Amino acid sequence: MIEISNLTVRFAATLRPVVKNLSLAVGKGAAFGLVGESGCGKSTVLRAMSGLNPQYEGRIRLDGETLDRRRDRPFFRRVQMVFQDPYGSLHPRKTIRSQIKEPLRNQGLASNSIDVDAVLRSVGLDPSLSYRFPHQLSGGQRQRVAIARALVLDPAVLLLDEPTSALDVSVQAEILNLLDDLRKDRGLTYLLVSHDLAVVSHMCSRVAIMEAGEIVEQVEIERLRQGAVEHPYSQRLLQASRLYGKQVHAMT
């Protein structure tokens, strides 16, 4: 479903690339993870894929079709993105119902062509919340709204940029389980960015590990769980993740 070949991204012609010659492929209906420390270029890959950053070198293909640098309107019916901050991605002065209908307006579709109540129920929200504003919802509820809005156009691909990192730990598992169920039920393809190996291990079947804008290793998730990684950076990242997990467990 997604094929990225030799992707290179610079924010200025004279600067070093933020992403360098990156290649990956994601099968239809699969969940693929990009992991690495902050600043390694993970979110930049998503921005190039989504069309938010059209200034890139290389080739991006969607379901066998090479994408133009400037994405057309039909592209956004097939690909939607869920951002890290559920409050920042929602308009503070628009009701939830209005924001869920917004993708329809952007595509020139009738706003009554969907059942907003049914969309909210599909992400575990009570339809009565549709007349509230974002500040009246919890963080987990806001992220469910963001997911609902992304699903309105019935896309084939969701790009997930740290979708749980801004949420309380108690809510993170609920959102991850919701995303996993939606992928299986709808046959969605996920490209998930995270710095949290536990999140990627829960969601994905394969993962690419990034360092300084490059993929240093790609592994099946079972190998990651077993610690069977080969690159020195992958080993350090896995060790740091395990050490952090022990510290959290000790504090609780």
TrEMBL record:
Any Gene Ontology CC annotation: plasma membrane
Gene Ontology MF terms: ATP binding; ATP hydrolysis activity
Residue span, ABC transporter domain: 2-237
Catalytic activity from the UniProt record: glutathione(out) + ATP + H2O = glutathione(in) + ADP + phosphate + H(+)
Signal sequence range: none
Top enzyme category: translocase
Lipid bilayer topology: Peripheral membrane protein
Listed Pfam families: ABC_tran (PF00005)
Compartments, record wording: Cell inner membrane; Membrane
GO biological process per UniProt: transmembrane transport
EC number of the protein: 7.4.2.10
Keywords recorded for this protein, A-Z: ATP-binding, Cell inner membrane, Cell membrane, Membrane, Nucleotide-binding, Translocase, Transport
Subunit structure of this chain's protein: The complex is composed of two ATP-binding proteins (GsiA), two transmembrane proteins (GsiC and GsiD) and a solute-binding protein (GsiB).
Family membership: Belongs to the ABC transporter superfamily. Glutathione importer (TC 3.A.1.5.11) family.
Function in brief: Part of the ABC transporter complex GsiABCD involved in glutathione import. Responsible for energy coupling to the transport system.
Name of the protein described by the UniProt record: Glutathione import ATP-binding protein GsiA
Source organism of this protein record: Rhizobium altiplani
